[in-house]
Amino acid sequence: MKERKINLWKWAFLILIFSILISIIYILIRLNNASNYSEYMENNEITNSTEIDNSLRFETKFTEDQFNELLKTVLMDEKNSYQIYFDKEVHFLGKLEILERKLPFEIKGRPKALKNGNIMVNISNIEAGGFDLPKNLILKAFAIIIPKDIPMKIDLEKGNIIINLIDISKEQGLLIKAKNIDSLKDDYTFEINIPKTMID
């Protein structure tokens, strides 16, 4: 029998999300206490709480630091040969093999919530070792070094990066969808669906 491979970055994703949601789950266990529930909703940026199909749905706002950690947890693992950080724009940095040379690169762009709940990074700037290289050449080289199990795809035609947040969150037994991302206004709003079985 083959040993089951443990995917550490998926566990990290779960730990991150549950650290953000732990106060929400705590209050859900006590939903029968209406006064506590109302007070909690007043003091936390959680809106549109509904119960649908044996799950509980919320909208909640992440801080910039939480959004940064979300990106790192979802898009990085021990096999990565690039780094990520967020400071109003998403930055990808590392080295790429282009034209038989190892060149330092940086790709950056603003994140945006898509209608389907995934995240698009609209690339605003690409640099590779100070050379004036075609954008598509750099993006193709970047696509090669992305591990296959990382939920990120390069749209070469449109010059965007798509972060498939929905599929990876579904794999963990819950659903997280980006509702609105506006880094200039520090707005990182997400919809979260938690199966009742997780909190019963």
Structure description:
This protein is α+β, with helices and mostly antiparallel strands and 200 residues long. Helix content is 31%, strand content 38%. The strands form two sheets. Strands 3-4-5-6-8-7 form a six-stranded antiparallel sheet. The chain is elongated, with a radius of gyration of 19 Å. It starts with 7 loop residues before the first helix and ends in a 5-residue tail after the last strand.
Q: What does the largest sheet look like?
A: 6 strands, antiparallel
The rounded distance between the terminal residues' Cα atoms is 34 Å
Shape: elongated
The gyration radius over C-alpha positions equals 19 Å
Run of helices and strands? HHEEHEEEEHEEHEE
- The pLDDT mean sits at 77
Tally of helical runs = 5
What is the spatial order of strands in the main beta sheet?
3-4-5-6-8-7
